[in-house]
Design a protein that fits this description.
Blueprint lengths: L1 H20 L3 E4 L4 E4 L2 E3 L2 E5 H7 L4 E5 L2 E6 L2 E6 L4 E4 L2 E4 L5 E2 L5 E3 L2 H5 L1 H5 L1 E5 L4 E6 L3 E11 L2 E8 L5 E6 L2 E6 L3 E5 L10 E7 L5 E6 L5 E7 L4 E7 L40 E3 L6 E6 L16 H19 L3 E4 L9 H10 L4 E8 L9 E6 L13 H5 L6 E3 L8 H19 L7 E3 L2 H4 L5 E8 L3 H8 L1 H21 L1
Parallel strand pairs: 14-18, 24-25, 24-26, 26-30, 27-29
Antiparallel strand pairs: 1-2, 2-13, 3-4, 4-11, 5-6, 6-7, 7-8, 8-9, 10-11, 12-13, 14-15, 15-22, 16-17, 17-20, 19-20, 21-22, 23-28, 27-30
Helix pairs in contact: 5-11, 8-11
Bound molecules: zinc ion (ZN).
Length: about 500
Protein backbone atom coordinates (compact mmCIF):
# COMPACT_ATOMS: atom_id res chain seq x y z
CA UNK A 1 0.00 0.00 0.00
CA UNK A 2 2.74 2.40 1.03
CA UNK A 3 4.69 1.51 -2.15
CA UNK A 4 1.64 2.17 -4.34
CA UNK A 5 1.15 5.60 -2.77
CA UNK A 6 4.78 6.45 -3.49
CA UNK A 7 4.38 5.41 -7.11
CA UNK A 8 1.24 7.53 -7.48
CA UNK A 9 2.97 10.51 -5.90
CA UNK A 10 5.89 10.09 -8.30
CA UNK A 11 3.61 9.83 -11.31
CA UNK A 12 1.48 12.87 -10.50
CA UNK A 13 4.01 15.48 -11.51
CA UNK A 14 4.85 13.71 -14.75
CA UNK A 15 1.29 13.15 -15.93
CA UNK A 16 0.23 16.39 -14.33
CA UNK A 17 2.52 18.46 -16.50
CA UNK A 18 1.83 16.35 -19.55
CA UNK A 19 -1.93 16.73 -19.21
CA UNK A 20 -1.84 20.34 -18.12
CA UNK A 21 0.08 21.35 -21.21
CA UNK A 22 -2.37 19.45 -23.41
CA UNK A 23 -1.57 20.06 -27.04
CA UNK A 24 1.65 21.87 -26.27
CA UNK A 25 3.88 18.87 -25.96
CA UNK A 26 3.43 15.57 -27.76
CA UNK A 27 5.94 12.94 -28.59
CA UNK A 28 5.30 10.22 -31.16
CA UNK A 29 7.82 7.46 -30.64
CA UNK A 30 6.90 5.64 -33.86
CA UNK A 31 7.48 8.52 -36.25
CA UNK A 32 10.24 9.97 -34.04
CA UNK A 33 8.46 13.31 -34.14
CA UNK A 34 7.45 15.70 -31.43
CA UNK A 35 5.36 18.81 -31.20
CA UNK A 36 6.48 21.58 -28.95
CA UNK A 37 4.74 24.93 -28.91
CA UNK A 38 7.01 27.94 -28.47
CA UNK A 39 6.26 30.91 -26.29
CA UNK A 40 6.69 34.40 -27.66
CA UNK A 41 9.13 36.71 -25.94
CA UNK A 42 10.08 39.99 -27.61
CA UNK A 43 8.25 38.58 -30.66
CA UNK A 44 10.75 35.72 -30.85
CA UNK A 45 9.66 32.10 -30.36
CA UNK A 46 11.27 30.56 -27.27
CA UNK A 47 11.18 26.87 -26.33
CA UNK A 48 10.91 25.53 -22.81
CA UNK A 49 13.86 23.57 -21.49
CA UNK A 50 11.47 21.61 -19.26
CA UNK A 51 9.82 20.29 -22.45
CA UNK A 52 13.22 19.48 -23.95
CA UNK A 53 14.37 17.66 -20.84
CA UNK A 54 11.17 15.58 -20.81
CA UNK A 55 11.31 14.58 -24.47
CA UNK A 56 14.93 13.52 -24.27
CA UNK A 57 14.79 12.34 -20.65
CA UNK A 58 17.60 14.67 -19.71
CA UNK A 59 18.21 15.11 -15.97
CA UNK A 60 18.28 18.81 -15.17
CA UNK A 61 19.98 20.52 -12.33
CA UNK A 62 19.39 24.10 -11.34
CA UNK A 63 22.67 25.11 -9.86
CA UNK A 64 21.49 28.58 -8.87
CA UNK A 65 18.95 31.19 -9.80
CA UNK A 66 21.22 32.04 -12.72
CA UNK A 67 22.57 28.69 -13.87
CA UNK A 68 20.96 25.52 -15.20
CA UNK A 69 22.62 22.29 -16.29
CA UNK A 70 21.08 19.64 -18.58
CA UNK A 71 22.85 16.31 -18.73
CA UNK A 72 22.57 14.09 -21.81
CA UNK A 73 23.99 10.69 -22.73
CA UNK A 74 26.81 12.36 -24.67
CA UNK A 75 27.52 15.38 -22.56
CA UNK A 76 26.04 18.34 -20.78
CA UNK A 77 24.97 21.87 -21.53
CA UNK A 78 24.93 24.79 -19.11
CA UNK A 79 22.64 27.81 -19.48
CA UNK A 80 23.13 31.20 -17.91
CA UNK A 81 20.21 33.50 -17.31
CA UNK A 82 20.02 36.41 -19.79
CA UNK A 83 23.24 35.35 -21.52
CA UNK A 84 23.46 34.59 -25.23
CA UNK A 85 26.16 32.02 -24.61
CA UNK A 86 25.86 28.44 -23.39
CA UNK A 87 28.53 25.89 -22.52
CA UNK A 88 28.34 22.59 -24.39
CA UNK A 89 30.72 20.02 -22.90
CA UNK A 90 32.69 22.90 -21.45
CA UNK A 91 33.00 24.76 -24.74
CA UNK A 92 31.40 28.20 -25.16
CA UNK A 93 28.74 28.23 -27.90
CA UNK A 94 27.03 31.49 -28.86
CA UNK A 95 23.23 31.57 -29.30
CA UNK A 96 21.36 34.08 -31.44
CA UNK A 97 19.34 35.29 -28.43
CA UNK A 98 19.95 35.30 -24.67
CA UNK A 99 18.55 32.48 -22.56
CA UNK A 100 15.26 33.76 -21.09
CA UNK A 101 14.07 33.03 -17.60
CA UNK A 102 11.30 34.63 -15.64
CA UNK A 103 11.39 34.38 -11.88
CA UNK A 104 9.82 31.11 -10.73
CA UNK A 105 9.15 30.09 -14.31
CA UNK A 106 11.03 27.78 -16.65
CA UNK A 107 14.15 28.47 -18.72
CA UNK A 108 13.65 29.20 -22.43
CA UNK A 109 15.92 29.12 -25.47
CA UNK A 110 15.61 30.06 -29.14
CA UNK A 111 15.58 27.61 -32.04
CA UNK A 112 19.29 27.60 -32.74
CA UNK A 113 19.82 25.66 -29.53
CA UNK A 114 18.43 22.59 -31.35
CA UNK A 115 21.16 22.83 -34.00
CA UNK A 116 24.05 24.05 -31.95
CA UNK A 117 23.83 22.05 -28.76
CA UNK A 118 21.27 19.27 -28.69
CA UNK A 119 22.92 16.86 -31.19
CA UNK A 120 26.13 17.07 -29.18
CA UNK A 121 24.52 16.01 -25.92
CA UNK A 122 21.83 13.55 -27.10
CA UNK A 123 23.47 12.06 -30.20
CA UNK A 124 20.51 12.69 -32.51
CA UNK A 125 19.92 15.44 -34.96
CA UNK A 126 16.76 17.51 -34.53
CA UNK A 127 15.21 18.46 -37.82
CA UNK A 128 12.62 21.20 -37.60
CA UNK A 129 9.59 20.52 -39.82
CA UNK A 130 7.69 23.62 -38.71
CA UNK A 131 7.67 26.07 -35.80
CA UNK A 132 6.06 23.40 -33.62
CA UNK A 133 6.98 20.08 -35.21
CA UNK A 134 10.38 18.46 -34.87
CA UNK A 135 11.75 15.25 -36.20
CA UNK A 136 14.56 13.20 -34.73
CA UNK A 137 17.14 11.90 -37.15
CA UNK A 138 20.14 9.74 -36.38
CA UNK A 139 23.39 11.66 -36.55
CA UNK A 140 25.03 11.17 -39.93
CA UNK A 141 28.51 9.71 -40.19
CA UNK A 142 31.36 12.12 -39.59
CA UNK A 143 33.97 13.05 -42.14
CA UNK A 144 37.30 14.79 -41.52
CA UNK A 145 38.13 17.51 -44.00
CA UNK A 146 41.61 18.93 -44.58
CA UNK A 147 41.75 22.49 -45.92
CA UNK A 148 44.58 23.94 -47.93
CA UNK A 149 44.79 27.48 -49.20
CA UNK A 150 46.98 28.58 -52.07
CA UNK A 151 47.42 31.89 -53.81
CA UNK A 152 47.53 32.52 -57.52
CA UNK A 153 47.99 35.89 -59.19
CA UNK A 154 44.29 36.27 -59.87
CA UNK A 155 42.59 33.98 -57.38
CA UNK A 156 42.75 32.32 -53.99
CA UNK A 157 42.19 28.59 -53.97
CA UNK A 158 40.50 26.68 -51.15
CA UNK A 159 41.07 22.95 -51.49
CA UNK A 160 38.99 20.58 -49.37
CA UNK A 161 40.24 17.04 -48.98
CA UNK A 162 37.75 14.87 -47.08
CA UNK A 163 38.72 11.54 -45.48
CA UNK A 164 36.22 9.95 -47.89
CA UNK A 165 34.34 11.28 -50.95
CA UNK A 166 31.39 13.45 -49.93
CA UNK A 167 28.83 15.55 -51.73
CA UNK A 168 29.88 19.09 -50.82
CA UNK A 169 27.13 21.64 -51.19
CA UNK A 170 28.29 25.17 -51.81
CA UNK A 171 25.90 28.09 -51.65
CA UNK A 172 26.37 31.83 -51.67
CA UNK A 173 24.65 33.63 -48.82
CA UNK A 174 25.21 37.38 -48.93
CA UNK A 175 28.85 38.14 -48.22
CA UNK A 176 29.75 34.52 -47.57
CA UNK A 177 30.07 31.20 -49.33
CA UNK A 178 28.78 28.37 -47.15
CA UNK A 179 29.98 24.81 -47.59
CA UNK A 180 28.25 21.80 -46.04
CA UNK A 181 28.56 18.06 -46.66
CA UNK A 182 25.30 16.35 -47.67
CA UNK A 183 24.22 13.71 -45.13
CA UNK A 184 27.49 13.99 -43.28
CA UNK A 185 28.77 15.68 -40.20
CA UNK A 186 31.91 17.62 -41.02
CA UNK A 187 34.98 18.20 -38.91
CA UNK A 188 37.18 20.77 -40.55
CA UNK A 189 40.65 21.84 -39.54
CA UNK A 190 41.03 25.40 -40.83
CA UNK A 191 44.65 26.57 -41.16
CA UNK A 192 45.54 28.79 -38.20
CA UNK A 193 47.34 31.44 -40.20
CA UNK A 194 45.62 32.18 -43.45
CA UNK A 195 47.28 34.03 -46.33
CA UNK A 196 45.06 36.73 -47.79
CA UNK A 197 45.06 38.61 -51.05
CA UNK A 198 41.66 40.27 -50.94
CA UNK A 199 39.64 37.69 -52.87
CA UNK A 200 38.86 35.49 -49.87
CA UNK A 201 38.20 37.03 -46.45
CA UNK A 202 37.98 34.85 -43.37
CA UNK A 203 37.50 31.10 -43.37
CA UNK A 204 35.66 29.82 -40.30
CA UNK A 205 34.32 26.42 -39.34
CA UNK A 206 31.01 26.43 -37.50
CA UNK A 207 30.63 23.13 -35.64
CA UNK A 208 26.93 23.53 -34.88
CA UNK A 209 24.50 21.07 -36.45
CA UNK A 210 26.30 18.97 -39.02
CA UNK A 211 29.06 21.53 -39.34
CA UNK A 212 29.55 24.25 -41.91
CA UNK A 213 32.58 25.91 -43.42
CA UNK A 214 31.97 29.59 -43.97
CA UNK A 215 34.18 31.52 -46.36
CA UNK A 216 33.71 35.25 -46.36
CA UNK A 217 34.29 37.03 -49.64
CA UNK A 218 37.19 39.47 -49.63
CA UNK A 219 36.90 43.11 -50.72
CA UNK A 220 38.29 42.30 -54.19
CA UNK A 221 36.11 39.20 -54.70
CA UNK A 222 34.35 39.04 -58.08
CA UNK A 223 33.25 35.46 -58.63
CA UNK A 224 33.96 31.89 -57.65
CA UNK A 225 34.63 28.73 -59.55
CA UNK A 226 34.30 25.13 -58.38
CA UNK A 227 35.68 21.83 -59.47
CA UNK A 228 35.86 18.31 -58.12
CA UNK A 229 38.93 16.13 -58.59
CA UNK A 230 39.47 12.43 -57.95
CA UNK A 231 42.42 10.40 -56.65
CA UNK A 232 42.35 11.61 -53.96
CA UNK A 233 38.87 13.12 -53.91
CA UNK A 234 39.12 16.92 -53.61
CA UNK A 235 36.76 19.82 -53.89
CA UNK A 236 38.26 23.06 -55.13
CA UNK A 237 36.69 26.46 -54.74
CA UNK A 238 38.52 29.35 -56.36
CA UNK A 239 37.80 32.92 -55.29
CA UNK A 240 38.57 35.19 -58.19
CA UNK A 241 39.34 38.87 -58.08
CA UNK A 242 39.13 41.36 -60.93
CA UNK A 243 42.52 41.72 -62.65
CA UNK A 244 43.34 38.48 -64.41
CA UNK A 245 41.20 35.49 -65.22
CA UNK A 246 42.72 32.52 -67.00
CA UNK A 247 40.31 30.61 -69.20
CA UNK A 248 41.10 27.45 -67.28
CA UNK A 249 42.33 27.17 -63.72
CA UNK A 250 46.08 26.76 -63.24
CA UNK A 251 47.29 23.21 -62.69
CA UNK A 252 47.13 21.76 -59.23
CA UNK A 253 50.21 20.43 -57.57
CA UNK A 254 50.09 16.67 -58.14
CA UNK A 255 48.54 14.74 -55.22
CA UNK A 256 50.89 14.64 -52.28
CA UNK A 257 53.30 17.21 -53.64
CA UNK A 258 51.60 20.22 -52.15
CA UNK A 259 54.13 20.58 -49.33
CA UNK A 260 57.09 18.64 -50.68
CA UNK A 261 57.90 19.63 -54.23
CA UNK A 262 59.24 16.92 -56.46
CA UNK A 263 62.02 17.75 -58.84
CA UNK A 264 61.15 16.95 -62.43
CA UNK A 265 63.77 15.40 -64.67
CA UNK A 266 66.04 18.22 -65.75
CA UNK A 267 68.25 17.89 -68.80
CA UNK A 268 71.94 17.87 -67.92
CA UNK A 269 73.63 21.09 -68.94
CA UNK A 270 77.34 21.37 -69.50
CA UNK A 271 79.13 23.57 -67.00
CA UNK A 272 76.38 23.27 -64.41
CA UNK A 273 76.75 20.99 -61.43
CA UNK A 274 73.99 18.38 -61.25
CA UNK A 275 70.98 19.81 -59.44
CA UNK A 276 70.84 18.89 -55.77
CA UNK A 277 67.40 19.08 -54.29
CA UNK A 278 66.13 18.53 -50.79
CA UNK A 279 62.45 18.84 -50.04
CA UNK A 280 61.66 21.90 -47.86
CA UNK A 281 65.28 23.01 -47.50
CA UNK A 282 67.87 24.21 -49.92
CA UNK A 283 71.46 25.22 -49.85
CA UNK A 284 72.10 28.04 -52.24
CA UNK A 285 75.34 27.95 -54.19
CA UNK A 286 75.56 31.22 -56.06
CA UNK A 287 77.49 32.18 -59.15
CA UNK A 288 76.24 29.39 -61.36
CA UNK A 289 75.29 32.08 -63.89
CA UNK A 290 71.88 30.59 -64.55
CA UNK A 291 68.65 32.46 -65.18
CA UNK A 292 65.48 30.38 -64.88
CA UNK A 293 62.47 31.39 -66.96
CA UNK A 294 59.14 29.83 -66.11
CA UNK A 295 56.72 29.38 -69.00
CA UNK A 296 53.34 29.60 -67.26
CA UNK A 297 50.49 27.07 -67.63
CA UNK A 298 50.68 24.05 -70.02
CA UNK A 299 48.79 20.90 -70.96
CA UNK A 300 45.06 21.11 -70.27
CA UNK A 301 45.70 24.41 -68.49
CA UNK A 302 45.50 26.81 -71.42
CA UNK A 303 45.87 30.02 -69.46
CA UNK A 304 44.29 33.21 -70.73
CA UNK A 305 43.13 33.58 -74.30
CA UNK A 306 40.76 35.54 -76.50
CA UNK A 307 40.68 32.95 -79.28
CA UNK A 308 42.04 29.43 -79.68
CA UNK A 309 44.68 30.87 -82.01
CA UNK A 310 46.59 32.58 -79.24
CA UNK A 311 46.82 30.63 -75.99
CA UNK A 312 48.77 31.85 -73.00
CA UNK A 313 50.37 28.42 -72.48
CA UNK A 314 51.92 28.52 -76.00
CA UNK A 315 52.88 32.16 -75.89
CA UNK A 316 54.76 31.79 -72.59
CA UNK A 317 57.00 29.11 -74.18
CA UNK A 318 57.53 31.23 -77.29
CA UNK A 319 58.46 34.25 -75.16
CA UNK A 320 60.77 32.20 -72.90
CA UNK A 321 62.69 30.81 -75.89
CA UNK A 322 63.06 34.27 -77.35
CA UNK A 323 64.40 35.72 -74.09
CA UNK A 324 66.80 32.75 -73.79
CA UNK A 325 68.17 33.45 -77.27
CA UNK A 326 68.66 37.14 -76.42
CA UNK A 327 70.37 36.55 -73.08
CA UNK A 328 72.63 33.73 -74.21
CA UNK A 329 73.72 35.70 -77.28
CA UNK A 330 74.78 38.77 -75.30
CA UNK A 331 75.96 37.53 -71.90
CA UNK A 332 77.73 34.62 -70.15
CA UNK A 333 74.42 33.62 -68.55
CA UNK A 334 72.79 30.27 -69.27
CA UNK A 335 69.00 30.22 -69.43
CA UNK A 336 66.90 27.26 -68.23
CA UNK A 337 63.22 27.14 -69.19
CA UNK A 338 60.95 25.24 -66.77
CA UNK A 339 58.62 23.89 -69.45
CA UNK A 340 59.08 23.64 -73.19
CA UNK A 341 56.63 20.82 -73.87
CA UNK A 342 52.87 21.25 -73.79
CA UNK A 343 52.44 19.45 -70.48
CA UNK A 344 50.93 20.36 -67.14
CA UNK A 345 53.37 21.36 -64.42
CA UNK A 346 52.80 22.00 -60.72
CA UNK A 347 53.38 25.46 -59.30
CA UNK A 348 55.96 24.29 -56.78
CA UNK A 349 57.82 22.21 -59.35
CA UNK A 350 58.55 25.41 -61.21
CA UNK A 351 60.16 27.02 -58.16
CA UNK A 352 62.02 23.79 -57.43
CA UNK A 353 63.69 23.92 -60.84
CA UNK A 354 64.95 27.45 -60.15
CA UNK A 355 66.35 26.39 -56.78
CA UNK A 356 67.92 23.20 -58.09
CA UNK A 357 69.87 25.22 -60.68
CA UNK A 358 70.84 27.82 -58.06
CA UNK A 359 69.33 30.40 -60.37
CA UNK A 360 70.59 33.97 -60.18
CA UNK A 361 67.05 35.11 -60.88
CA UNK A 362 63.67 33.50 -61.54
CA UNK A 363 61.06 35.06 -63.83
CA UNK A 364 57.64 33.44 -64.18
CA UNK A 365 56.17 34.43 -67.54
CA UNK A 366 52.45 34.98 -68.03
CA UNK A 367 49.97 36.95 -70.08
CA UNK A 368 46.96 38.51 -68.44
CA UNK A 369 43.30 37.64 -68.80
CA UNK A 370 40.44 39.73 -67.48
CA UNK A 371 36.69 40.11 -67.63
CA UNK A 372 37.38 43.71 -68.35
CA UNK A 373 38.43 43.79 -72.02
CA UNK A 374 39.88 47.29 -71.60
CA UNK A 375 42.53 45.96 -69.19
CA UNK A 376 45.84 45.97 -71.05
CA UNK A 377 49.60 46.36 -70.71
CA UNK A 378 52.27 44.61 -68.69
CA UNK A 379 52.21 44.02 -64.94
CA UNK A 380 55.16 42.79 -62.90
CA UNK A 381 54.73 41.41 -59.38
CA UNK A 382 57.06 40.42 -56.56
CA UNK A 383 56.42 38.38 -53.43
CA UNK A 384 55.10 39.98 -50.28
CA UNK A 385 53.76 38.53 -47.08
CA UNK A 386 50.46 40.42 -47.23
CA UNK A 387 47.90 38.85 -44.98
CA UNK A 388 50.21 36.69 -42.93
CA UNK A 389 49.01 38.62 -39.90
CA UNK A 390 52.47 39.07 -38.51
CA UNK A 391 52.94 35.40 -37.78
CA UNK A 392 56.52 34.50 -38.44
CA UNK A 393 57.69 31.06 -39.38
CA UNK A 394 57.63 28.71 -36.44
CA UNK A 395 60.72 26.66 -35.91
CA UNK A 396 60.04 22.95 -35.79
CA UNK A 397 61.83 20.82 -33.23
CA UNK A 398 63.87 19.35 -36.07
CA UNK A 399 65.17 22.84 -36.79
CA UNK A 400 66.39 23.14 -33.21
CA UNK A 401 67.92 19.68 -33.05
CA UNK A 402 70.21 19.80 -36.07
CA UNK A 403 72.27 22.93 -36.36
CA UNK A 404 71.55 24.04 -39.92
CA UNK A 405 74.08 25.73 -42.16
CA UNK A 406 73.49 29.46 -42.22
CA UNK A 407 72.17 29.35 -45.76
CA UNK A 408 69.70 26.47 -45.23
CA UNK A 409 66.19 27.89 -45.40
CA UNK A 410 62.68 26.50 -44.99
CA UNK A 411 60.64 26.68 -48.18
CA UNK A 412 58.05 29.12 -46.86
CA UNK A 413 60.58 31.74 -45.80
CA UNK A 414 62.99 31.34 -48.75
CA UNK A 415 61.92 34.52 -50.51
CA UNK A 416 61.59 36.77 -47.45
CA UNK A 417 65.11 38.18 -47.25
CA UNK A 418 65.15 38.63 -51.04
CA UNK A 419 62.04 40.81 -51.28
CA UNK A 420 63.92 44.14 -51.75
CA UNK A 421 65.99 42.66 -54.60
CA UNK A 422 62.92 41.05 -56.19
CA UNK A 423 61.18 44.40 -56.00
CA UNK A 424 64.13 46.06 -57.71
CA UNK A 425 64.04 43.42 -60.46
CA UNK A 426 60.27 43.91 -60.85
CA UNK A 427 60.70 47.69 -61.16
CA UNK A 428 63.39 47.29 -63.81
CA UNK A 429 61.26 44.89 -65.88
CA UNK A 430 58.14 47.02 -65.45
CA UNK A 431 59.96 50.09 -66.76
CA UNK A 432 61.25 48.22 -69.82
CA UNK A 433 57.83 46.71 -70.57
CA UNK A 434 56.06 50.05 -70.13
CA UNK A 435 58.17 51.34 -73.02
CA UNK A 436 57.02 48.48 -75.26
CA UNK A 437 53.34 48.74 -74.30
CA UNK A 438 53.21 52.54 -74.07
CA UNK A 439 51.87 52.44 -70.51
CA UNK A 440 54.13 54.93 -68.67
CA UNK A 441 52.20 54.95 -65.38
CA UNK A 442 51.99 51.23 -64.64
CA UNK A 443 53.59 50.32 -61.30
CA UNK A 444 54.76 47.00 -59.93
CA UNK A 445 52.50 44.99 -57.64
CA UNK A 446 53.11 42.48 -54.89
CA UNK A 447 51.32 39.62 -53.23
CA UNK A 448 51.89 36.27 -51.56
CA UNK A 449 52.43 34.30 -54.74
CA UNK A 450 53.02 30.60 -54.23
CA UNK A 451 55.38 30.26 -57.19
CA UNK A 452 57.69 32.91 -55.71
CA UNK A 453 57.45 31.95 -52.03
CA UNK A 454 60.03 29.15 -52.01
CA UNK A 455 62.44 30.77 -54.43
CA UNK A 456 66.02 31.30 -53.25
CA UNK A 457 66.79 34.01 -55.78
CA UNK A 458 65.26 37.35 -56.71
CA UNK A 459 61.98 36.29 -58.33
CA UNK A 460 59.07 37.94 -60.12
CA UNK A 461 55.89 37.07 -61.99
CA UNK A 462 55.10 39.11 -65.04
CA UNK A 463 52.08 39.45 -67.27
CA UNK A 464 53.38 40.61 -70.63
CA UNK A 465 50.14 42.10 -71.95
CA UNK A 466 46.50 41.03 -71.76
CA UNK A 467 45.27 38.34 -74.13
CA UNK A 468 41.67 39.31 -73.36
CA UNK A 469 42.35 42.80 -74.67
CA UNK A 470 41.92 43.06 -78.42
CA UNK A 471 44.75 45.55 -78.91
CA UNK A 472 47.26 43.54 -76.82
CA UNK A 473 46.16 40.24 -78.44
CA UNK A 474 46.66 41.65 -81.94
CA UNK A 475 50.04 43.03 -80.89
CA UNK A 476 51.21 39.70 -79.43
CA UNK A 477 49.91 37.67 -82.36
CA UNK A 478 52.73 39.26 -84.37
CA UNK A 479 56.03 37.38 -83.84
CA UNK A 480 58.12 40.54 -84.26
CA UNK A 481 56.28 42.14 -81.36
CA UNK A 482 56.89 39.06 -79.16
CA UNK A 483 60.56 39.60 -80.00
CA UNK A 484 60.28 43.22 -78.85
CA UNK A 485 58.75 42.10 -75.56
CA UNK A 486 61.46 39.43 -75.18
CA UNK A 487 64.15 42.00 -75.88
CA UNK A 488 62.75 44.34 -73.22
CA UNK A 489 62.64 41.53 -70.64
CA UNK A 490 66.17 40.34 -71.55
CA UNK A 491 67.48 43.91 -71.17
CA UNK A 492 65.75 44.27 -67.79
CA UNK A 493 67.21 40.98 -66.58
CA UNK A 494 70.75 41.78 -67.73
CA UNK A 495 70.58 45.31 -66.31
CA UNK A 496 69.63 43.86 -62.97
CA UNK A 497 72.36 41.22 -63.07
CA UNK A 498 75.01 43.84 -63.93
CA UNK A 499 73.86 46.13 -61.15
CA UNK A 500 74.08 43.63 -58.27
ZN1 LIG B 1 48.92 33.02 -66.51
Amino acid sequence: MKRLIIIIILLIPVFGIWLARGQDLQFFRESRRFHMAPRQHDRIPYYSLRDVSRIFALPRQERSENELLLRGPRGSVTFFKDKAEIRVNGEAVPLSQPVWRRRGDDWYVTLDFFDKALPRIVGVYVNRKSATTFELLPLPAAVEVKVQISLFPDHTRVMLEPSQPVDFQVREVGVAVEIVAANRRMHVAVPSSMPKQGFLGSLVFDSSGNGMLRAEKGPAFQRRREQTLDDPFRKIIDFYGPPAMPATPPPLPAPGTAQVPVLPPVPASPGISSPSFQPQKFVRRPNQNVVVLDSGHGGSDLGAHLSTELLEKDLTVRLARQIKTEIEASSPYKVVITRELDTAMGILQRTAIANSYHAEIFVSLHFGGSYDPSMRGAFVYFYSETGREGKQEEKSSADEATPAPADLKPWVSAQLSLIPRSQALAARLQAKLNQVFGTPDTQVGSNQFLVLQGCLSPAVILEAGYLTNFEDAMFLADATNVKKVAHAIALGILDFLRMK
